[in-house]
Design a protein that fits this description.
mainly alpha; 5 helices; 75% helix; membrane; metal ion transmembrane transporter activity; ZIP transporter
């Protein structure tokens, strides 16, 4: 976020954190860690953005790897913590048609996000 020139980079992160289904204690810990690590990461990004050029291949690789790690963590949280709870419920386990529609919806959603990534 600190190395980005676009002020809208935080919106997807905030949306994904708000949709997480945790207890009050876990939410408090997440708020604490987010409050500590976010300013540190932004300061680090601002400091590093002054050191490297945006057009160099090394900086593009580093930014790409960091973006891939962030996306991977968010996908892991979505699939393991959020979707697994829904898909392992008795409502979906007992109804094959509903389960098929749910899988199709997940695949269409992932495909839609992948298509939108073309313009990101």
């Amino acid at each position: 976020m600190g190395a980005s020139n676009n002020p809208c980079t935080i919106r997807p992160l905030v949306a994904s954190i708000c949709e997480a289904n945790y207890g009050m204690r876990m939410k408090s810990m997440l708020v604490l860690f987010f409050s500590i690590t976010t300013p540190f990461g932004i300061a680090l990004g601002v400091g590093l953005s002054n050191v490297y050029s945006d057009n160099r291949s090394t900086s593009l690789i580093v930014v790409g790897l960091l973006n891939a790690c962030s996306a991977g963590l968010l996908n892991y949280m979505e699939l393991v913590d959020l979707l697994s709870y829904d898909f392992m419920g008795t409502k979906l386990q007992n109804n094959m048609k509903l389960q098929s529609w749910a899988y199709l919806a997940v695949l269409l959603g992932a495909g839609g996000i992948s298509v939108m990534a073309i313009w990101a």
